[in-house]
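Minutes, project check-in

Agenda point 3 was the complex the collaborators sent over. CS summarized: two entities, 292 residues total, and the question is how they sit relative to each other. Sequences were read into the notes so everyone works from the same version.
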Amino acid sequence: MKQIVTIAVLIVTAATAATLLIQRSRERAASFEQVRSQNEELTRRLARLEQMLAARPLDRPDATRTAPFENLPSGSAPTRERSTQASIKATDADARKVAEHTERVQAGNAIVDRAIQAGRWSPADLAALDSATGGLSGAETAEMMARISAAINSDQVQLDMRPRP
Amino acid sequence: MKRNRLGLCALGFAGALLSSTAAFAGWRSSQEVVIWDVLSFANGDVSYASNTADTGQRIECESKGGSGYCLAEDQTGLTRQCSTSDSDLLAVIRSLKNDSYLSFSWDTNGHCTNIRVDNSSYTVPKK
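CS then shared the predicted structure for the full assembly.
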């Protein structure tokens, strides 16, 4: 009798373990499937991005003006083409913004670099930095100021406040 | 070790307070600019530099847009500065007045770690 009970207990335990294993395996499969679908979505997006970049005329700044359907009355160009054209224009505008932003960051950092090299920081430098970094985020401007502050605090740069306001 | 460091900090802070010349006129104080490098800390009355002709001292903050900085220069010409884009600290900077008491501290990267402004009647107004 005891043997039967033991066997029964063993069978129940084995069944429970098997159920748990199957359940975990299913969860893993689901998780894997989710990752796979995310990966596919990312791949699709990347392909779309590559298509957009390939369509974008990098070497021809006047490309938007010579694009097909440009001179046609509104509504007469195929929708898909107009959409592509709008995307190209938007991408160009974005690229210009990025380029301007990068220039501002570089200009600001150049002012800080020059001051650190010269070992002097004056109100004129501050004004130049203010002017160069217009439009940058507070964090970006603060980071540049932090660089000059760290140089001042380590006595690499002397504050030249003459003439005092 | 940690306790020793805390003790040193406390000692330094006390030293900073003691070494600063706080001249009391009635209930009003006029504290010169003190920079305590050990603590990366500076404090003083904004009005002190303006009211004391023979000193090159200054302590001030300025904010512009989403960033700001604080600057202190003591009697010896030692200067310390920090910068921030933290909205809370920027709000403190914007509360600064001509007769405020100002203190700030900084980290090794030049970022402000704390800024304190006291606008009380105890400080001498800027002349």
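Noted in discussion: Strands of chain B lie at 22-25, 28-31, 34-36, 41-45, 58-64, 67-73, 79-84, 101-106, 112-118.
Follow-up: revisit at the next meeting once the mutant set is ready.
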